[in-house]
Amino acid sequence: MVTALATSFRHRTDAKPTLYIVPRRVASWMYGELTQRLFGQILTREETMMTIKDLDTFFGSGWNRHDVDVLMTFMSDDCVFESTAGPEVCGTRYAGRERVREAFVRVFKIFPDATFADARHFVAGNRGVSEWTFTGTTPDGKKVEVNGCDIFTFQNGKIAVKSSYFKNRTA
Q1: In terms of domains, do 68 and 141 share one?
Q2: Which residues constitute the domain of residue 69?
Q3: Distance, CA of 34 to CA of 123 (rounded, Å)
Q4: What is the pTM of this model?
């Protein structure tokens, strides 16, 4: 029997949440009238969740080792990468595994020594954030060091959207 997890809060400020495990058919009936936002808080055991440890590996083994194959193991089939710069309001949007892979390779060509230091992550359901300090040097010798973050949307334990942001540091 597949079960669903639901959390209930008592109407007291000092109360801790109570966790209920109920059969899926009951959860579907109980929560059928809830909005999508609330229903998203009910997790089934068959769903795969992205974790902080996964994001540590994504940055440590993927970005900091310049391993695009490792990076792509974390990306969903229909993934999107929104870069820090570009002509669109979101920077440049790369949709699909092939275009995202090409964009990641391009980062390493622009910054052959790119690193993401002091990465801090949090995950809440299907969303997450990573904060870091990016350092890199362009092939012509220009050094870059800026704080930045990624805002993630997860789907089935993979990154569906990676939207990146940098501080715009002046000389």
Answers
A1: yes
A2: 52-166
A3: 23
A4: 0.70
